[in-house]
């Protein structure tokens, strides 16, 4: 029983990372109709930035948790203005070429300076140790991540559903042309929303630094699963991406624990789930068929 | 108030409007009638600024708005009532109503909207797409009235509605007119059109074939119905 609870908890923690990354991808796709293949690279930059800030300037984790998302969000906004916005009128193939190209550039810039070996990042002192849940002990830091990610998802949900900004973003996401006809300058919201999505990826990266190996390629493996998450949840669906993020975290953790005798199954289970969902609901669990323009 | 001059519009290579010119004075209700594919909806989209391939000029109150993007036109007082009713699935009824900023001199307060449309008030927290077709049409009209739009662009507001609801839409447009609102209306229902409108333009193959007043439409109703294929 305690084994199951522990696996479940671990699944929710990796799910928290999937949810944060998928949430950013979902708001970006919703607003720009751009699939940001560079999302994993910004996650990596978040983690690497935290590492560099600490090792070269002595900036602690808590400061990095603010500096990196804000800094990367601004970088994201600059990139959106400089290149990403050009994609809207082009064939979707260019979307892939540009954002994947950005990934390679960002990864190699980091590699050039720091190489490919993993760098250690100490858990912040405040969150060292374990919490006892009766049945089992669990690292305090992971409890923090889970709580923080859930809070963040709830906060984003609140902004999107309860504020005027959220209403404008929802309307612009659902029917951009119609929303323009109602006097709203949809274009003005595109850059901040892109920056926000990138900021979330950077935040996930900082959170990952103390528990995952910090290296230039750390975003690559993760992002493949995150894309499966986004497809399962429904491309552009905010709620779907968060729910599928946690769901896939669980499926993966249980698969690794209970299907470890069948490594082929446990390693591919996410994609089997994705294929199944697509057969059953082509627009994803919470996705809607595109409305006519 | 609205003047359209030599307006041509294209979908790729295909030309759907050919040098259309027409005029709508302040306080008038004017309809565009014509067969499917005559270019009525495209004309409305051009006036709203939603159709990219166009030539010619559109002026509002003497100001050339041809180059203005749709959101700036809306802020000058154009109210868009699209043919699919434009309900947002991800917005509640109240949010659908309050999404557009208020622009005109006489926007309806939300309370007044709900007084006039009790059905919308009952379902104010539901997703707008959960409403019936008639309720969604009322929502689309209520939205531009709340906005305070001075010129309503309505694309077939009676399509698919029961006779009772058609009458309600008519009452509503007449009330808007009494308050000085101008309306440009795409309409297939000639009986409805003559009941609410002052003048009519018949569009055929992308051109204005005829301009008619109510008595002319009534006296030629049979001929027009046959022409429209209804």
UniProtKB/TrEMBL annotation, chain A:
GO MF entries: transmembrane transporter activity
Record field: transmembrane: 12-30, 60-80, 92-110, 141-160, 189-210, 222-251, 258-280
Domain of life: Bacteria
InterPro entries hit by this protein: ABC_transp_permease (IPR001851), BCAA_transport_permease (IPR052157)
Primary localisation category: membrane
GO BP: amino acid transport
Keywords assigned by UniProt, alphabetized: Amino-acid transport, Cell membrane, Membrane, Transmembrane, Transmembrane helix, Transport
Gene Ontology CC entries for this record: plasma membrane
Membrane topology, record value: Multi-pass membrane protein
Localization per record: Cell membrane
A family per Pfam: BPD_transp_2
Recorded family membership: Belongs to the binding-protein-dependent transport system permease family. LivHM subfamily.
The name this protein goes by in its record: ABC-type urea/short-chain amide or branched-chain amino acid transport system, permease component
Protein source organism: Micromonospora lupini str. Lupac 08
UniProtKB/TrEMBL annotation, chain B:
SUPFAM superfamilies noted in UniProt: P-loop containing nucleoside triphosphate hydrolases
Transmembrane segments: none
Alphabetized UniProt keyword annotations: Amino-acid transport, ATP-binding, Hydrolase, Nucleotide-binding, Transport
GO biological process, one term: L-amino acid transport
One Pfam family per UniProt: ABC_tran
Domain ABC transporter stretches: 2-230
Family stated for the protein in its record: Belongs to the ABC transporter superfamily.
Name of the protein in question: High-affinity branched-chain amino acid transport protein (ABC superfamily, atp_bind)
Gene name, Swiss-Prot/TrEMBL: braG
